[in-house]
Amino acid sequence: MTDTACLSITNLTAKYGTAIAVDRLNLTIARGELLSLLGPSGCGKTTTLRMIAGFVQPAGGAILLNGRDITQQPPHRRNIGVVFQSYALFPHLSALENVAFGLRMRNVPSAARREQARAMLDTVGLGTFSDRAPGNLSGGQQQRVALARALVIEPEVLLLDEPLSNLDANLRGDMRDEIRTLQQRLGITTIFVTHDQQEALSMSDRIAVMRAGVIAELGTPTQLCDTPTSAFTATFLGARTVIEGQTRGGTFTAPGLQFQGAPDRARQIVLRASRLRLTDAPEGALSLSGTVSTVSYLGETWEIDLATPNGPVRLIVPSDTPPPDPGAVRAVTALPGAITFI
Question: What pLDDT is recorded for position 84?
Answer without folding.
Answer: 86
